[in-house]
Amino acid sequence: MAQAAAPAPQGFVRRDSGAVLLLADPEFLEPLERLGLADAGGLARAMARSRGPSGRGHVSVLLLPGRSERLCLRPLHRGGWLGRLLPGSFATLARPLAELEVTAALHAAGAPVPRVLLVVGERRGGGAFDAAVGTVFEEGTLDGLHFLDAAPERERMLRAAAAAGAAVRRFHDAGGCHADLHVKNLLLRERAEGFEALVIDLDRARVETQVTPRARLAELMRLYRSLLKRGLLARVGPRGCARFFAAYVAGDRRLRRALRAGLPRERLRLALHRLHYRGA
Q: For residue range 81-96, what is the model confidence (pLDDT) as tens digits?
């Protein structure tokens, strides 16, 4: 029960009923409690009550009582063989709490990430937790995979690529290091004045004082490989990739040179991944 004694992260409040541990943005505490998220069984009921938009996986989008915003509630799952045995069970809330702190810190630093509202953990037998992270639902957005699947016309795709490049640059400049930056972890929103993009799903992400060019390039190439793996690279095309890169470097010649210097290493890694994709 050491987790139960842990203090709430700065800027958040804690409610612990014994069955449920809720750490929430105090501005949203009352509507979250009215949703039943501080009650036993509340997390399962919330997840069964609503489903998120196509492409957002197993998330629940819920009206927040008395608020104009909606809640996007995402359960956390283990990976690997242990995840198949105990998909939603965590010994402590360290992992979702780390995501909450990283997301809150990046949001405060001006990174294009959603506003995080809560972590909720419901205790199972033996003290393990079912856990979820909640953020403000970003209205009018579509993830990058579904945007490209809809075969947008060329100029719309180029504008979206530029918005995505600028957003990832802001994310890195704020110190963000994403553990799994891929096309579905970019949200796109089209407005009359153009596109904007957000970086989402910061499970296992970190905040660094400075993100090195090597770390930046590794994440950019992970995003590139996600397009290749899903058969979407041709839809983006060389012009889309160039537009993304130009928006990312934003005229910073030193950064451009540093990224280009790391390309031979990343091209070798890409070749190895291509072999894996062919064998899949």
A: 444 445 456 788 999 9
Distance of CA 64 to the CA centre of its chain: 21
Q: Which tokens belong to 79? A: 């990976």
pLDDT in tens, 157-197: 999 999 999 999 999 999 999 999 999 999 999 999 999 99
CATH 1.10.3720.10 fits 141-279, yes or no: no
* Domain residue ranges of the chain, discontinuous segments joined by +: 9-136, 141-279
Q: Which distant-in-sequence residues (6+ apart) come within 8 Å of 171 by Cβ?
A: 106, 111, 112, 113, 178, 199
Q: Is residue 239 within a helix (H) or strand (E), and if so which, with residue range?
A: helix 233-249
